[in-house]
């Protein structure tokens, strides 16, 4: 990855995170309980659940990229993304907005440290993402920002 492409990625990550935190910080407590949609298992996700998902996704995708960087192949072929997402929401439902906000910062620091550790050739290492697509580390980094942006848009539609 060129220095220019790396800087563009960092700028994209910064912009989406800034948008997310500014929006999230502006919400009243009642808005966190607004229903956004139902997942494949038909359980309702609130705005706060969607934030839980964004927090967990960044942490999980950073761990995935580290595994790919170390020579791993990514998620197993039988990985069930819908089940994973639903279970991760259940495991984090005790977390408050303040907890999630701290996790957002911690996870982003970990992602940026990982990005900073990469050499040019590392960006093209590939593995299986939870979507079952074979993606490079560069593509997964971009996906983190795109994923965050898509969920910001969904949250803004309802709250």
Output the helix-strand order: HEEHHHEEH
How would a crystallographer describe the biggest sheet?
2 strands, antiparallel
Instruction: Tell me the name of the CATH class.
Output: Mainly Alpha
CATH topology: Four Helix Bundle (Hemerythrin (Met), subunit A)
Radius of gyration: 16 Å
Give an overview of the whole structure.
The chain is built from 5 helices and 4 strands; from the N terminus they run αββαααββα. The radius of gyration is 16 Å and the shape is globular. It has helices at residues 3-26, 47-69, 81-92, 97-117, 137-158; strands at residues 35-38, 44-46, 126-128, 134-136. It has 159 residues and is mainly α. It has a single domain (3-9, 35-158), classed as dinb family like domain (Four Helix Bundle (Hemerythrin (Met), subunit A), Up-down Bundle), CATH 1.20.120. Helices cover 64% and strands 8% of the residues. The strands form 2 sheets. The protein has a two-stranded antiparallel ribbon. The longest helix has 24 residues, at 3-26. Helix 2 crosses helix 3 (81-92). The termini are far apart.
